[in-house]
Amino acid sequence: MKRNYNGPLTLAQLKEASIKSFNNAIELLDDAEILFNSNRYARTLFLIRISQEEFGKFLIVNETIIKSIHEENIDWPKFWQRLSKHEEKTYKYSSVVKEFFNKNIASFADGNLNKAIPFWEYIKIACIYVDFHNESFRLPSEYISVELVAEAMESTKNIIGSFIDFDINDVIDAAKMNLTKI
Q1: Contact (CB, 8 A) for 62 and 168
Q2: What is the reported pTM?
Q3: Would you put residue 111 in left (φ > 0), alpha (ψ -120 to 50) or beta?
Q4: 178: closest CA among 96, 31, 69?
Q5: Rounded to 5, what percent of the chain is helix, strand, coil?
Q6: Mean pLDDT in the chain?
Q7: Are 45 and 149 in contact (CB under 8 A)?
Q8: What is the CA radius of gyration of the chain?
Q9: Please, what's the b/e burial string for 118-137 (b: 16 or more CB within 10 A of its CB; e: otherwise)?
Q10: Residues 133-176: tens digit of each pLDDT
């Protein structure tokens, strides 16, 4: 679906994007749990990854809200590009996970997110498509393990769930108060 707008947003529009991105991340995790309970592990992992990307979008939007309040120049084409690129949202999610939860989801790539993100993109796609591997075609369900998915589910629920009481209005009020103290 091609977006028909790529210009500036108002603070109200950014707040709406924040709230809806977060809610969508939660809904995707809820859907993933339904699939997990039905032993559909590959599709579960796909939805978990999409949920992480939506959470990354939520973080990018909130970062932009703070810039907007501080009247910093916002590069709107770059903002829209970041919202549409899977890698950007995954990078943002991974950075927050590393910084605030002391988890390095890029440990298999020597801690290098730039090396890990293409792998995570590959895994996401591998969760939904038949692929040729080791001289035969394989269903995603033939190599996505329940252990991997259970760990990803628990970790993602904990991370996103820790923001459940987050209120963007509190962030906006605090940012505005800091401006008046300067």
Answers
A1: yes
A2: 0.88
A3: left
A4: 69
A5: 70, 5, 25
A6: 89
A7: yes
A8: 18
A9: eebeebbebbeeeeeeeeee
A10: 889 999 999 989 999 999 999 999 999 999 999 998 888 888 77
